[in-house]
Amino acid sequence: MKLFLTSSADKTLPLLKGLVPNVGTEVLFVANASDPYDREHWWVELDRQVFKKLGFNIHEVDVRNITPQVFERMLRESDVLHVCGGSVYYIMALLREQKLDESIIQAIRDDIVVYSGTSAGSVIVSNNLRPVSYDSEEAEQVAKVPGHNGLGIIDFTILPHANNPDFGKEWTKAVTQLPADNTALFFLHDNQALWVEDGGMRLLSI
C-alpha cells in the first residue's frame, strides 16, 4: 500500500520518484472533484502539467461515464491513480454511486497502483470526512454522503491547505468539534506531502 497525499501536488510531486524510484509512467487521472465548480479549474491544470513535466503519461477518465469493469481494467493498466482537488463530498458520493470505490480500495491494498491525491483527492482516503464538512464550499454536497464515510484507507482525517488563511475559519471549527467527531486530524501544508506505505508514514516538505 502506497499513498502520496498532498494539498498541492504541483508543488510536491517531484518527491514521488524519490520515494518509488521504479514507479511506472502511466497515470490514471481523475479530475471529477472539480465538476461542481463553474470557475476555471486551474488547480487541475497545475496537476496535469507537473505530471507531464516529470515524464508521466496521463490517461484522463471521467468517472461519471465509466463502468466498474472498465475502470478496474484501467487501474490494472496504470502505475499511479491520481485524484485531483475540488469537492470532497461530491467526488466521494460519485465514486460510490458509480460503484468504483471498492475497486480503488482493492487496487491500493494490493499494490496495483500508487495512489496520489491533491486536496480533496487526499481527503477521501480518510475514514471520517465530517471535519471537512465545515468548509463552506462543501455545504451543497454534504448530504450526498450521509454517514460522512470516506474510503477508509487511513484512520485519521487529512485537512489540506493548513497554512492557507482562507481555510482558517473552517479548520478552527473542525478542531472545536473534535470531542463530537472522535477522529484524529492531520493538517497538511501546501508545500508538504504525507507518504503512507504499509504500516508507516513520513511527512515530507519541499
Looking at the structure, what is the overall shape?
A: globular
Q: What's the architecture of the domain at 2-130 in CATH terms?
A: 3-Layer(aba) Sandwich
Q: Within the CATH hierarchy, at the fold level, what is the topology of the domain at 2-130?
A: Rossmann fold
Count the E strands.
Answer: 9
CATH class categorisation of the domain at 2-130: Alpha Beta
Distance between the termini: 23 Å
* Rg of Cα set: 16 Å
Helix/strand order = EHHEHEHEHHEHEHHEEE
Q: Tell me the major beta sheet.
A: 7 strands, mixed
**What is the mean predicted local confidence, pLDDT?**
93
Query: What is the multimeric organization of the chains shown?
Result: single chain
CATH superfamily of the domain at 2-130: Class I glutamine amidotransferase (GATase) domain
